[in-house]
Amino acid sequence: MDIGFIFPIGLLVVFVFYVVAKYNGIVTMRNNREQSFADIDTQLQLRFDLVPNLIETVKGYAKHEQDTLLAVTQARSLYNDAKTTDDKIEANTMLTGALKSIFALSEAYPDLKANASFLQFQTELSDIENKLAASRRFFNAATNEYNTYIEVFPANFVAQMFGFIRAKGFEIENRAEVSQAPKVTF
Q: CA 166 to CA 160: how far, in whole Å?
């Protein structure tokens, strides 16, 4: 065999192995990101399972606060209808704001604030929120690792070749809105 023939074939084989290795690395990182969102999804489902009980408890004390209760119900429904990770993240942001309003109601209704069921739901929700925060950090780290990997040279060529794009992290979209305590007036 001619060495002039073997060298290009060798280069082609090395290139194919390189592309396969980079592709597999990208797929692995994408799957890690998706798995980390599944952890968030589990915590969000636990949170949403508490919401109907929380609403029923609040209804007895704040009958005229239907707007607040409706906002929580609508946000919960949006999450259940969400198909994509981005839609679920957006619905979660809405629910977080609506839940803040419910807990602000507890300040206006001392009997509600002292209600054993409400306190139990509040404690369970607090526990879930802590687990959610940890899951979000892991998800954002996995997203950052994936995004960095597909953007750095030379893996970016493989990412572009196979249509991998930047993924969105779990971020608060309107920080000003979330950082302000909800106002409840009567």
A: 11
Residue where the block lists tokens 């608060």: 172
pLDDT tops 70 at residue 182: no
Spatial contact of 34 and 146, defined as CB atoms under 8 Å apart: no
Using an 8 Å Cβ cutoff, are 42 and 48 in contact? Answer: no
List the domain boundaries for the chain.
Answer: 3-179
CA 3/CA 181 separation, integer angstroms: 74
Whether 54 and 115 have beta carbons less than 8 Å apart is answered as: no
- The string of pLDDT tens digits covering residues 98-108 is 778 777 777 77
- Homologous superfamily of 3-179 in CATH? LemA-like domain (1.20.1440.20)
Q: Are 101 and 183 in contact (CB under 8 A)?
A: no
Claim: this prediction has a pTM higher than 0.70:
no
Cα 110 to chain center, whole Å? Answer: 33
State how far the Cα of 69 lies from the Cα of 180, in Å rounded to an integer: 19
